[in-house]
Design a protein that fits this description.
UDP-N-acetylmuramoyl-L-alanine:D-glutamate ligase; 13 strands; 332 residues; alpha/beta
Length: 332
């Protein structure tokens, strides 16, 4: 038995979530439904445009892998997370949020001066999420933020595909996977976003290297990454890069492959109001179930239920007591 269930790495971003309409996105010249990297000046321009919307905005610690690790931790995983924040108000807020969730951060990491990453999450009435991200100091995450002993002491590592946009972040992901494989720690990677697949596919291939144990992605990411036109072909192609996979398909549930069998697991019917964090929640719940020795079918059912819960409300995360209630409802 290893000391930790899960070790994650990803961008540390403080999210500000705002509701708006498609006209606002057009006026701001923002591409809908994807994550776009911006500099701080551009992000501030967007915030200025959205001043009237900020009254109901909500601040939360975010970042794709962080959302997954925090969910897994609330469900019961013993988790470690490597990230990089600055010694500023947002950085302190972020680390406290991780601590509140029971997530451990490597003790040797001391936040330097700078600006903690920020993400503007824009939700349209169709529940689609659009993100404009200023990475801030997160762009310089590197191997210095890794804890090799904790990686070796974990059952799984979880790598955020967004790291591919940062040269040092990509190197950190590659080194994390190398340490994991050398210590019989399983490797899981999320493709993160259709834009990552479209513009950084070669970098993702570098991160995957000679293969990972488990890939998480949605339908669009699966098709884009494998450069295929239907899911069956995408599934066949994905098997060249991983031993197992889970493809989320929105309300249709998930298509999963456990290394031997491939099957569709039905989704949970809900009215979606905000899809931000759906895939993150799916991965966190899925990895929690695997940590408890459940099979892929059970893991996918629990992950679908958890993702349905998070999209039925605003924000990428649940309240602490909601994670416990969800787990008790499903596993009791």
């Amino acid at each position: 038995m290893k000391q930790y269930h899960l070790y994650g790495i990803g961008a540390a971003l403080v999210d500000t979530e705002i509701t708006l309409n498609d006209t606002d996105l057009i006026q701001m010249a923002v591409a809908k439904g994807v994550m776009t990297l911006v500099d701080e000046k551009r992000q501030n321009q967007l915030i200025d445009y959205l001043q009237d919307h900020l009254v109901a905005s909500h601040r939360a610690s975010g970042g794709s892998a962080a959302n997954s690790i925090i969910a897994a931790s609330y469900f019961g995983c013993k988790s470690v997370y490597s990230c990089k924040v600055a010694n500023d108000e947002n950085g302190k807020f972020y680390l406290q949020d991780l601590q509140n969730a029971g997530v451990i951060t490597p003790k040797h990491i001391q936040p330097p001066e700078g600006i903690t990453g920020k993400c503007l999450v824009m939700i349209t009435p169709d529940a689609e999420r659009t993100m404009n991200t200023f990475l801030g100091i997160s762009e310089t995450i590197s191997t210095a933020e890794l804890d090799p002993q904790a990686i070796a002491d974990s059952e799984y590592v979880y790598i955020e595909g967004y790291l591919v946009t940062s040269p040092t972040g990509k190197s950190a992901a590659i080194e994390l996977a190398r340490i994991a494989k050398a210590n019989n720690t399983k490797t899981a990677l999320s493709l993160s976003d259709p834009a990552m697949v479209q513009f950084f596919r070669d970098g993702l291939l570098e991160m995957i290297g000679d293969g990972v144990d488990l890939i998480f992605c949605n339908r669009d990411e699966a098709l884009g990454f494998t450069q295929t036109h239907n899911l069956l072909d995408a599934c066949t192609a994905l098997k060249k890069y991983c031993k197992q996979f889970a493809i989320t398909c929105g309300g249709e549930g998930a298509l999963v492959f456990d290394g031997n069998n491939q099957f569709q697991v039905a989704g949970t019917s809900v009215k979606a109001v905000d899809t931000n964090g759906a895939g993150d929640m799916f991965a966190g719940a899925f990895l929690y179930a695997l940590s408890q020795q459940y099979n892929f079918e059970v893991a996918a059912k629990f992950a679908n239920l958890s993702a349905a819960k998070v999209v039925s409300q605003f924000g990428p995360r649940l309240k602490a007591e909601e994670y416990a209630a969800l787990k008790d409802r499903f596993f009791s």
